[in-house]
């Protein structure tokens, strides 16, 4: 979204602020559908094989959990922001398995923000993200940065 | 899939290639990353990327598929040689994932890995942990994707 019209621009991120989004229900069907296309390992497809695995029961592909994180970030605030994409992700830890019928929330802490070295109209914001299940257990932890357009380029 | 003891730092594996099409880019983005530049050529052209490009998570998911297919072929080859197959374990996570260049509709990305470290698991004696640099290169030879992976690998039974 253009920084002139976006509700959330680079200027609006405050280091230290914490926001939560969700919940998002994860179904057995979508766990199996994603795994069939992108991660067809038995522990993500089949209960019997999953029970024998280290994860002891059917769980989502870690890449599915990341894709769900992306969608929850988008629905949470990215859609009404001046987001210009992300250069990458510093870290993802798959802390606990995500199970069928889990209700996931994300808790995002703004860590820091700085100007882009090369593009005066763009800033970089770094976040820490925790994804939790309904029991408030952390299932995923990540730190990453995103590019955001500035409402008023040239000012701090 | 080999045992932890059979792996060496420096071992290189080529997992295979995935072709990104407008259809599979848009299909993934509608479910998981509906930013305009992942949904249409027109919006992509207007963006910093200059064209329809894949969600970074699509690039990552496609890489996982190529790794799983590679491991399956290894497993079948081991079976054909009359060996007892072993399956790799899950991954605790990754670091330093970089989307270095956009992946556009029509691009074919080839994924490879190189083992950088092998470590015994402190808490699980039947498993070791393999650390590898995983890289995706497009048909022009440009590196578009990389990350530092980790995964549990089974130890040889004592």
CATH architecture of chain A: Roll
By CATH reckoning, the class of chain A would read Alpha Beta
Provide the helix percentage of chain A: 10-25%
Q: Can you tell me the number of structural domains of chain B?
A: 1
Oligomer: heterodimer
- Total beta strand runs of chain B: 5
Q: How can the largest sheet of chain B be summarized?
A: 5 strands, antiparallel
CATH class of chain B: Alpha Beta
CA radius of gyration of chain B is: 18 Å
- Class from helix and strand fractions of chain B: alpha+beta
Judging by the overall fold, what is the CATH architecture of chain B? Roll
Please bin the fraction of helical residues of chain B.
Answer: 25-40%
| Molecular shape of chain A | elongated
Instruction: Give the largest chain-chain interface (CB within 8 Å).
Output: A-B, 35 and 34 residues
Output the helix-strand order of chain A.
EHHHEEEE
The name CATH uses for the topology of chain B is Thiol Ester Dehydrase, Chain A
Q: Low-confidence stretches of chain B at least 5 residues in length (pLDDT < 50)?
A: none
Query: What portion of residues of chain A belong to β-strands?
Result: 25-35%
Average residue-wise pLDDT of chain A: 94
Mean of all residue-level pLDDT scores of chain B: 94
Polypeptide structure, described:
- The complex is a heterodimer of chains A (156) and B (158).
- With 156 residues, chain A is an alpha+beta fold.
- Chain A has a single domain, classed as Roll (Thiol Ester Dehydrase, Chain A), CATH 3.10.129.10.
- Chain A is built from 3 helices and 5 strands, in the order E-H-H-H-E-E-E-E.
- Chain B has 158 residues and is of the alpha+beta class.
- Chain B has a single domain, classed as Hotdog Thioesterase (Thiol Ester Dehydrase, Chain A), CATH 3.10.129.10.
- In chain B, 27% of the residues lie in helices and 32% in strands.
- Chain B has a 5-stranded antiparallel sheet with strand order 1-3-4-5-2, with helices on one face.
- In chain B, strand 4 and strand 5 form a beta hairpin.
- The longest helix of chain B has 25 residues.
- Chain B is elongated, with a radius of gyration of 18 Å.
- The chains are: A alpha+beta (156), B alpha+beta (158).
């Amino acid at each position: 979204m253009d920084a002139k019209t976006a509700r959330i621009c680079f200027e609006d991120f405050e280091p230290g602020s914490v926001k939560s989004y969700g919940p998002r229900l994860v179904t057995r069907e979508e766990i199996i559908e994603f795994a069939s296309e992108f991660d067809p390992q038995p522990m993500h497809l089949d209960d019997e094989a999953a029970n024998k695995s280290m994860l002891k029961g059917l769980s989502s592909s870690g890449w599915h959990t990341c894709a769900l994180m992306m969608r929850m970030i988008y629905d949470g605030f990215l859609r009404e922001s001046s987001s210009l994409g992300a250069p990458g992700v510093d870290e993802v830890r798959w802390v606990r398995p995500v199970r069928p019928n889990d209700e996931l929330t994300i808790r995002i802490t703004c860590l820091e923000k700085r100007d882009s070295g090369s593009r005066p109209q763009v800033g970089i914001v770094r976040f820490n993200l925790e994804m939790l299940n309904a029991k408030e257990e952390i299932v995923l932890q990540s730190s990453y940065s995103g590019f955001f357009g500035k409402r008023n380029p040239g000012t701090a | 899939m080999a045992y932890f003891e059979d792996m060496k730092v420096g071992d290189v594996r080529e997992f295979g290639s995935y072709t990104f099409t407008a259809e599979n880019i848009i299909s993934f983005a509608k479910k998981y990353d509906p930013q305009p530049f992942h949904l249409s050529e027109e919006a992509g052209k207007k963006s910093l990327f200059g064209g329809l490009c894949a969600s970074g998570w699509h690039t990552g998911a496609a890489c996982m598929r190529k790794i799983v297919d590679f491991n399956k072929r290894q497993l079948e080859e081991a079976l054909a040689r009359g060996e007892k197959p072993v399956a790799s374990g899950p991954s605790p996570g990754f670091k330093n994932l970089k989307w270095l260049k956009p992946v556009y509709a029509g691009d074919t990305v080839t994924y490879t890995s190189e083992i950088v470290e092998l470590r015994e698991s402190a808490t699980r004696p039947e498993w070791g942990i393999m650390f590898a640099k995983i890289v995706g290169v497009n048909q022009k030879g440009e590196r578009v994707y990389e990350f530092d992976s980790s995964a549990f690998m089974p130890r040889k039974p004592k």
